[in-house]
User: What shape does this take?
Amino acid sequence: MHIDKDLVAASATPLVLGILAEGESYGYAIVKRVNELSGGQMQWTDGMLYPLLHRLERNGYVQASWRTSDAGRRRKHYAITETGLEALAERQEQWSVVADALKQVWRAASHPPVLGSAAAGGTA
Assistant: This one.
């Protein structure tokens, strides 16, 4: 299934902040975690992730530091800040409202009113 780029973009910030709320991480691991969380349906690229991480860092939602792995490779690790946790809580509330509204619409759409009926606003 293809997920529309608008949905990917809208969900990117809360996904990354949520992943970092689990613990600090680095780019490749974040991409891998998104893939895992979406059951392989969301395939993020470096070109999408790193501009987002840089924006989150500029906004004070994450802080970055360079670390060296056991294999000797240097990686930039990202950790959520207190401001980032507050932003995540706000995004969670916003997404709950959106998800509830969508559930109601989809529930109603699965039982569409008969055209021309009084319930549908018709004058039958």
Q: What stands out?
A: Residues 82-109 form the longest helix (28 residues). The beta strands are 25-26, 62-68, 74-80. The longest strand covers residues 62-68.
